[in-house]
Design brief:
By secondary structure, this protein is an alpha+beta fold. It folds into two domains: 204 residues, no CATH class; 117 residues. The strands form two sheets. Strands 1, 2, 3, 6, 7, 8, 9, 10 and 11 form a nine-stranded antiparallel sheet that branches. It has a two-stranded antiparallel ribbon with strand order 4-5. A hairpin with a 2-residue loop joins β2 and β3. α2 crosses α4, α5 runs antiparallel to α6 and α8 packs across α9. The longest helix has 20 residues. The protein is globular and about 75 Å long. The model has no long low-confidence stretch (mean pLDDT 93).
C-alpha cells in the first residue's frame, strides 16, 4: 500500500501577473460561480525545478538534442558535417520523431517534435554512444554487429518502419529507468515512441487558485525618454497596458512517496527529493512579470499530511469565496474545518498532520520538511 504526503498551502500575492494567458493577462478560473486567479501546475513545477533547491537534482527538458548535443559533438570529433547531420537526425530518434526541415529552416530536422526529460546519466550515455559512432565511422570496426544491424534498418523504404527499427536498436544504448533525476521521478516522463521508458509521476500538483473572488485590473503605464528635453514633444516615449490581480492562493500537492522511492531506488534520495520540492513550493514564486511587480512571497500556512489513505484535496472549503479583510485567518479556519468534517464523514484521511501557521507564529518549514522526510 502506498504512503502519501499531502500538502495544503496558502500563499498571499500582492498585485501581480505570475502566469499569463494568450492575451498577457493573469490566468483565471471560475469556481463557486465567481472568477478566481489561477496559476497553472505547469508554471508552478517549472518555477520549482528551475530553483536553487533543485540544483544538481534535475536533468534537461528539451527538444534540441540533435541540434545542441549530438551534431556539435560529432563535428567536434572530426565527422564531416553532412555525415554528422545524417547520423544526428537518426540518433535523436531515440527521443522521438524529428521536426520537418524546410528551405527556410534547414536544421529543423535536428529538433524533436516533443519536449522530453533526459536525466544526467542518459546524457552521459548519449555522449558515449556518439563516441562509439565516431569510432565506427573512422575504423569501420563493428565487433558486436550493432552497426551492421543499423545499416539493415536504414534500408527500409517505409519511413515509419525505418524510424521504428532504428529507435528499437538504439534506445537501450541511452535510455534508462535507473538513476533518474529528481524532476523526472517527481513529475514523470512520457516517451510516446519508447513507452517502456515512460516514468509515472510521483507528484501531482493542482492549479493554484485564489480563495477570494477577483477582478483582473489594468495597469496603464507610460515610459519617459531621459534625453527628451520636451522642446518639441512633451509626450511619453512609450505607452502600455498590463493586467494584474491579487489574492490568497490555495495550492495542493500530493506525493506518492512509495512510488517516489521506487522511481529513485533509494528512500534516502526520495527524502531529499521531497525536501527540495516542499522548500521550493513554499518559497519560490513563478517568474512572470517579477521585474514589474516584485511578487515574491512565501507560504503563510502549510498543512502537511501523511498516511496510506486515499488522497483528497480541500479546495471545496473555498467554493464560497472568502470576502473578508482577515482573509488568511478565515481561509485557514475553513480549511481546517473541512478537514475535520471529512474525517468525521470518512474516518481519518491521514495518519499524521503537521502545520506551519505564520500568522499564529506556530510551526516552521524545518518541521514540515522533517515531517515529510521522516
Amino acid at each position: 500500500m502506498s504512503e502519501f504526503i499531502q500538502l495544503h498551502m496558502l500563499t498571499n500575492y500582492a498585485p501581480s501577473n505570475l502566469n499569463r494567458d494568450d492575451l498577457g493577462r493573469p490566468k483565471t478560473a471560475k469556481m463557486g460561480g465567481v472568477d478566481r486567479l489561477r496559476i497553472s501546475s505547469q508554471s508552478l513545477k517549472r518555477a520549482w525545478r528551475m530553483s536553487e533547491f533543485f540544483n544538481g537534482l534535475k536533468g534537461n527538458r528539451t527538444k534540441r538534442v540533435g541540434l545542441d548535443w549530438i551534431y556539435p559533438l560529432l563535428v567536434e570529433k572530426g565527422v564531416e558535417e553532412d555525415v554528422a547531420k545524417e547520423w544526428s537526425t537518426e540518433i535523436q530518434l531515440i527521443f522521438g520523431e524529428p521536426e520537418d526541415a524546410s528551405e527556410d529552416k534547414p536544421d529543423h530536422d535536428l529538433l524533436n517534435k516533443q519536449l522530453v526529460f533526459i536525466s544526467s546519466e542518459e546524457k552521459a550515455a548519449l555522449d558515449y554512444y556518439c563516441l562509439e559512432v565516431v569510432e565506427f565511422l573512422k575504423t569501420g570496426e563493428d565487433e558486436e554487429g550493432f552497426f551492421n544491424k543499423l545499416e539493415k534498418a536504414r534500408k527500409q523504404k517505409d519511413k515509419k518502419k525505418r524510424h521504428g527499427a532504428l529507435r528499437k536498436l538504439m534506445e537501450d544504448k541511452v535510455l534508462s529507468l535507473v538513476n533518474l533525476t529528481v524532476d523526472i521521478a517527481l513529475f514523470g516522463r512520457m516517451l510516446a515512441s519508447s513507452p517502456k521508458y515512460n516514468v509515472e509521476a510521483a507528484a501531482q500538483v493542482a492549479h493554484a487558485i485564489t480563495v477570494n473572488r477577483v477582478a483582473v485590473e489594468d495597469d496603464y503605464f507610460t515610459a519617459v525618454d531621459d534625453l527628451n528635453t520636451h522642446e518639441e514633444d512633451a509626450g511619453s516615449a512609450h505607452i502600455g497596458e498590463s493586467g494584474f490581480g491579487s489574492g490568497v492562493f490555495y495550492t495542493y500537492i500530493c506525493i506518492n512517496k512509495t512510488l517516489l522511492i521506487d522511481n529513485l531506488g533509494s528512500e534516502e534520495f526520495a527524502n531529499s527529493a521531497l525536501k527540495a520540492l516542499i522548500e521550493a513550493a513554499a518559497t519560490v514564486a513563478p517568474s512572470g512579470k517579477q521585474n514589474s511587480f516584485a511578487s515574491r512571497a512565501r507560504a503563510l500556512y502549510i498543512m502537511a499530511e501523511k498516511g496510506s489513505q486515499q488522497p483528497r484535496q480541500l479546495s471545496s472549503a473555498f467554493l464560497k469565496p472568502v470576502d473578508n479583510a482577515d482573509m488568511v485567518k478565515v481561509a485557514i479556519e475553513r480549511l481546517e474545518k473541512l478537514r475535520d468534517n471529512m474525517d468525521k464523514a470518512y474516518g481519518a484521511c491521514a495518519d499524521k498532520t503537521k502545520i506551519m501557521d505564520v500568522e499564529k507564529g506556530e510551526g516552521s518549514l524545518t518541521e514540515i520538511l522533517e515531517f515529510a522526510g521522516a
